């Protein structure tokens, strides 16, 4: 099947726009490869420091015959998805020895849990934790003692941050190593129902807590298709995992063998061999477009409208929301996973998972099947599911969809398009995800209720002031204002209002979560309110039109009056919970469409 014409045109657009930056980046990789401060060049005292922490591997390291693999780990046991990494480094060292290599923990990176910080002050550090992770990854790899790396990370900001840092060492071969989702707890429908009952006062805190614990009940990634699992999907379609490692549960023999295979694989990708595959060459324009196609075909997290441009920039590539919008019109939605369906990622995996998705999207011409992959020799290898036969790892074709309420072919999709839209108008430029929104709610026209904090929205909801047709406007939530926290706590009350029959929408310069669902939400509004963005001109009662059909976001206010308005005054910068330490990040951060990154903006990328 030839490449889809829109995918081809968007790829050409990305390549042309990125030509100068990508050339500079590839030149950097060549210089770094040729001038790399590696182990043969380090002084004896430098090497002695590097080898002092290990005794068993010291002779092999001193001999220098095999690759020394740096492990960058996001382990902590507060985050369920990353708690599984506890023993990975010691296992990886054993598996490296099996193929004549060695491995060391190069460094750790922070890994905060957005599920813990949702709605509270810590969430204002969430997006900038991505930049912190990128910096931490660079520090970990800066020692010059590694010929390759394994990146241990799964969740929301961790994978993008690891990649942003790792790509500045793009002459090294690297793989990302997932840990897998926790087994299924209570159904997502049951969980959502209790949340909405709690929002209306019909469930108490004990019932809500019991429900949440039944959903998030053990080690492993949360099972809804939010940002963490969208990360994993993207790594698969970019070829940065051992094929189809993403959604195998922790604690299984298959999970262990996939991790072992990752160690063996990266050990064979160094420049001393014939299969040199540096990560900076693997992450090219076509791989970035693949990630965008996967995002749209599976109904993934809106957070990647920030993360994908940031990852791309770290590799000298420019992709923007216009590219995503064009692709969305051509890429069919072939997966329904909660919050865009009833099944969780375990149900998705059982129905065929990423093997089915990749096979079908290559066959339909929506994925670049010829990208340089790190996890296997070709992306086509990822069109097969891993399994154990006589305790040996092998891969097999997934067959037809095991459940056509979860996975369908591009010929018979859930929707002919990917469900992401760009909205533009006198309020600014924003994104909306409609794959989980009923078609009759794609257009909402209603008076504005304006807030500067999601706590204000919740209080107004409790007072009954929002029991009407309403467009809730929450501003001063952008990266420069307060770090662009997710406004996930608004989902249940706005859902309640919608269930009552009201026409409801959200407009914000902040983020929604990867679990953005059934309420239409125009998010990431740019320019943001801080600094004079037009969202700061909206007043209570202004008629607002959110139109995902026409792609418009308008305040239906007389043009002369609109032009004469003064922007709302920004609330004072918050202190406490360490937020003041991130003032530099807020000050340097660029706009959402570029990735909302202080580190990339500060580096001139």
TrEMBL record:
Disordered, as annotated region: 390-411
A biological process term (GO) from this entry: Entner-Doudoroff pathway through 6-phosphogluconate
Name of a matching Pfam family: ILV_EDD_C
Classification via InterPro entries: 6-phosphgluc_deHydtase (IPR004786), Dihydro-acid_dehy_C (IPR042096), DiOHA_6PGluconate_deHydtase_CS (IPR020558), ILV_EDD_C (IPR056740), ILV_EDD_N (IPR000581), IlvD/EDD_N (IPR037237)
Residues involved in [4Fe-4S] cluster binding: 155, 222
Molecular function GO terms recorded: 4 iron, 4 sulfur cluster binding; metal ion binding; phosphogluconate dehydratase activity
Cofactor(s) needed for function: [4Fe-4S] cluster
Pathway: Carbohydrate metabolism; Entner-Doudoroff pathway
Cofactor remark: Binds 1 [4Fe-4S] cluster.
Catalytic activity, as annotated: 6-phospho-D-gluconate = 2-dehydro-3-deoxy-6-phospho-D-gluconate + H2O
Domain Dihydroxy-acid/6-phosphogluconate dehydratase N-terminal: 68-380
Enzyme class: lyase
Ranges for domain Dihydroxy-acid/6-phosphogluconate dehydratase C-terminal: 406-596
UniProt family annotation: Belongs to the IlvD/Edd family.
Purpose of the protein: Catalyzes the dehydration of 6-phospho-D-gluconate to 2-dehydro-3-deoxy-6-phospho-D-gluconate.
Protein name: Phosphogluconate dehydratase
Organism: Sphingomonas jeddahensis
Gene that this polypeptide is encoded by: edd
């Amino acid at each position: 099947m030839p490449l889809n014409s829109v995918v081809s045109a968007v790829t050409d657009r990305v390549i042309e726009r990125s030509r100068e930056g990508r050339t500079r980046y590839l030149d950097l990789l060549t210089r770094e490869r040729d001038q790399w401060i590696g182990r043969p060049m380090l002084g004896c005292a430098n090497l002695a420091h590097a080898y002092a922490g290990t005794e068993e591997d010291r002779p092999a390291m001193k001999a220098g015959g095999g690759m020394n693999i740096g492990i960058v780990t996001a382990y902590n046991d507060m985050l369920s998805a990353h708690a599984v990494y506890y023993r990975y480094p010691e296992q990886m060292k054993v598996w490296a020895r099996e193929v004549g290599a060695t491995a060391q923990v190069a460094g750790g990176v922070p890994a905060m849990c957005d599920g813990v910080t949702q709605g509270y002050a810590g969430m204002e550090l969430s997006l900038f934790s991505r930049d912190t992770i990128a910096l931490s990854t660079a520090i970990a790899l800066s020692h010059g003692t590694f010929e390759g790396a394994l990146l241990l990370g799964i969740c929301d900001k961790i994978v993008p941050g690891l990649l942003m840092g790792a790509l500045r060492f793009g002459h090294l071969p690297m793989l990302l190593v997932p840990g897998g989702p926790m087994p299924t707890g209570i159904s997502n429908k049951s969980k959502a129902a209790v949340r909405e009952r709690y929002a209306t006062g019909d469930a108490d805190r004990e019932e809500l807590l019991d429900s949440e614990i039944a959903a998030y009940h053990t080690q492993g990634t949360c099972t809804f298709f939010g940002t963490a699992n969208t990360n994993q999907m993207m790594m698969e379609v970019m070829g940065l995992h051992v094929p189809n490692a993403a959604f195998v549960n922790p604690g299984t023999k298959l999970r262990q063998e996939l991790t072992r295979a990752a160690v063996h694989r990266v050990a064979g990708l160094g420049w001393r061999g014939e299969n040199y595959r540096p990560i900076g060459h693997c992450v090219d324009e076509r791989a970035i477009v693949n990630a965008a196609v996967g995002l749209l075909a599976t109904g993934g997290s809106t957070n990647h409208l920030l993360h994908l441009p940031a990852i791309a920039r770290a590799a000298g590539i420019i992709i923007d929301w216009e590219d995503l919008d064009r692709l969305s019109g051509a890429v069919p939605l072939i997966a329904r996973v909660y919050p865009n369906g009833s099944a969780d990622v375990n149900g998705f995996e059982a129905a065929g998972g990423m093997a089915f998705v990749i096979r079908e999207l290559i066959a339909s011409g929506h994925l670049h099947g010829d990208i340089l992959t790190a996890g296997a020799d070709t992306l086509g290898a990822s069109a097969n599911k891993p399994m154990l036969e006589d305790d040996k790892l092998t891969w097999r074709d997934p067959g037809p969809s095991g459940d056509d309420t979860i996975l369908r072919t591009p010929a018979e999709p859930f929707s002919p398009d990917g469900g992401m839209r760009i909205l533009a108008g006198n309020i600014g430029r924003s994104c909306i995800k409609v794959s989980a929104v009923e078609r009759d709610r794609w257009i909402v026209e209603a008076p504005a209720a304006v807030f500067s904090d999601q706590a204000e929205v919740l209080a107004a909801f409790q007072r009954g002031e929002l029991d009407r047709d309403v467009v809730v406007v929450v501003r001063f939530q952008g990266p420069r204002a307060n770090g662009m926290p997710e406004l996930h706590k608004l989902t249940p009350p706005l859902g309640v209002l919608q269930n009552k029959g009201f026409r409801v929408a959200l407009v914000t310069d902040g983020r929604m979560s990867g679990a953005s669902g059934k309420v239409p939400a125009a998010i990431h509004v740019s320019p943001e309110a801080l600094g004079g963005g037009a969202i700061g001109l909206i007043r209570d009662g202004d008629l607002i039109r959110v139109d995902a059909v026409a792609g418009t976001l308008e305040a239906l206010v007389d043009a002369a009056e609109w032009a004469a308005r003064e922007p709302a005054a920004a609330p004072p910068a918050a202190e406490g919970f360490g937020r003041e330490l991130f003032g530099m990040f807020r000050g340097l951060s660029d706009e959402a469409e570029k990735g909302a990154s202080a580190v990339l903006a500060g580096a001139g990328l």
